[in-house]
Amino acid sequence: MALVRVISSDGAAFLVSQRLAKRSGKLKTEIETFRKSSDNSEAQPEIRIVTIRAEILRLVLQWLQQHQNDPVLPANQNEQDGRGDAEMGQSQWDRDFLAPMDLGIVMELILAANHLEVKGLLDITCKLVESKITGRTVDEIRTAFKLKSDFKGNEEEQTRLENRWCVEN
Amino acid sequence: MLPSGSMVAVPAKLPEANKELSRFGMEDMPNEVLHNIFHKVESKHELLTFRKVCRRWASNISEVLGSRTNLQYSEWKLITPKPDIIEYPVPKVMVGSSTRRMIADVMFPHRLSSALNPFPTLSISLVSIDIFTNPDDYELKPGESKIGFRPLIWNHGTNLKVLHISGNAFTLPRPQILFANLPNLKTLKLKHCSSNPVNSSDPESSTEEEEAKKFPILRNLTIRFCKMELANWILKTFAPTLESLELGCTMTKPFTRENYPEPDSFQNLKNFKIFDFKEASCSGPGTWIEMNNLGKVRVNLFHGPLKFLSPFVSRMKETIVDFTYDKKLANVLLLPADAGKSEDERRIIYPKVSKLCTQPVNHLQLQWDLELITKSFPNLKLLRLADYTETTREDAIVTCDIPAIFKSCPQIQTIEVLYNTCIPKYLLYHCHTFTRQDF
Q1: Which of A56, A74, B216, B404 has the fewest CB atoms within 10 Å around its CB?
Q2: Considering CB atoms only, which of A53, A80, A126 is closest to B37?
């Protein structure tokens, strides 16, 4: 079985089958680039992910392993209908997987899924965030996500007016 | 033996979590991730609310709003009154670029094969696209075809006579080049489009004068929900040849005379319609009417547009304010509450009106002053009385005193009494028609 070493930003090395790794768009590209540049076809690729720490990388790989037989989704699939595979049926495993995570971990997982181009994981984590903002007031969202209003003067009102053309009855 | 797809070795002990790294928050999310999140919000109302969180959210949500059609909102499912008017995008044609990850639905009125040859009409509903990028490597699903917008225009533009484009992020970076490649275009309908107008400093574009020579002789133009820059450029460019012009809700800047071509430049205009003007299109005081009888649609027939109409009226056969939300009410003048306050408007516009629709608020205003109708609307042929609750034909005759109207207003030939009935989620419209000969 062909393997690849995936190393996190804090130095932890994960030995992963290439078949599994290639379910990440980013890792797939890295493996193929390694193959093209390497003289030794038997050499084991080593990929360092400088933006993802071990704890998060482990979660991504865990999710990939669970979903290794799912069809790979095109990166732009959900642009059109506003929904991705997250809507098509989140499994109980996914729900259990996300349930214990605090918002900070979810945010990191989103960034990791986006960086590694793991569409399915990105979708379910974004869906989770969506569920945490839907139904909340603006102030509640600002509090929950530690966001501050940076509108100046009547900018907020101006933004609303400028985008009025999007708002069709 | 291990399965081929698996994680075969995990470090026995993971490094301790770095607290600095775990501080990631919403502000660290790249725009594409924010888009992904906002795209999952089904409610348009919620999206509009979320724009108030911060500037970055406002900007990203505006893009998301623009890239979706009303069919994709949960509210649409609740308020849609008429399922049969939905334009389903079948068959689909994908247009876009991999870099922008854009997808568009191209809606053809006929099957794709017949539409491509001779390709007479093309209706495009674009989610978001840079018009001059190449098609992406989108993997087609059964029943879909793919065509790049640029090759589409380049290869088929010569035959194209009707072009409908909608989608707010549809940008025309150099619209002059687009139109130069559509020499036989007769009808153009733009909805939710934006553009930067002519950029003469662009090295790829030829001079305005050269391009102008190649522009089509456009006869019919509809512009709705378009950015002012684009609307201005198109109006000014094609004003002399237009025979039919429909304007609605053109935004960003106030809808004022100075933003538009001089009325005299519309030398061939025979048909002019304005519709669903809104607050932002007409800054300043206006008249809002709650159209309770028409699916709760909020309509603004603004004082400004009526003034704007005046210069055109003298060369038009009839004044038309097209109320497009309901086809049954098309081609009538719907009186806003303060319409006609200006003597000029009354003098110039009212004699041109052949069809008039009034609502109870106007009924009250007019106090059934039939003499006023007779004097103000000497050429009125049809009077439509709207916004009644369910009524029988006999009741309508009594309630509206139809015989009295016919007697007092000899110019009126037909009276219609419009009423609606409600069933859950739907509003149905009905009409009793009375002619002078009936009495």
Answers
A1: B404
A2: A126
